[in-house]
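Page 42, continued from yesterday. The earlier attempt failed because a stray header line got pasted into the input along with the sequence. Redoing it now with the clean sequence only.
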Amino acid sequence: MTATFQTIDTPDGPFSVLVDERERVLASGWTVRLDDLLERLRAADRPSEVVPGRTRAAAAAEAYYGGDVSAIDDVEVAQRGTPMQLQGWEALRRITPGRPLSYSEFAAALGAPRAVRAAASVCARNAPALFVPCHRVLRGDGSLGGFAWGELVKRALLDREQKSLAFG
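This time it went through. Structure tokens are written below.
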């Protein structure tokens, strides 16, 4: 498989996307390093070739940063995982911007209220960050919890989405 790689500038730092031939996001994050994105994928899911180019996903990220936080909603992603991971990644896409859930609320939304660690693992294994908004899940006490791209980015994303709710 040949994939396309693009990096854009954002207020949170450089943001890169890796998409397949169908323009589905394989991985994305706040980095300029292709290897950082490839490492988020299972070895079997990594493309055999990567070329630079423009992507619709990067354009959606630019629109998100321009104030349209819903611009990322319809970007297709390609994820492979367990049935629970797939269900969890789909559920992450349904969390309303500006209305984050706790890990226990997220676990309950998956129909497994006692599986808080498993729900957190779903977030940790999410490769197409931003497009599958794992940043919208917080610890039960309201603190940020982990985020592959750093707590500063997570806080900035949550603040941006909260402001969009206030002005939307």
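Notes: The chain has a mean pLDDT of 95.
Reminder to self: strip header lines before submitting.
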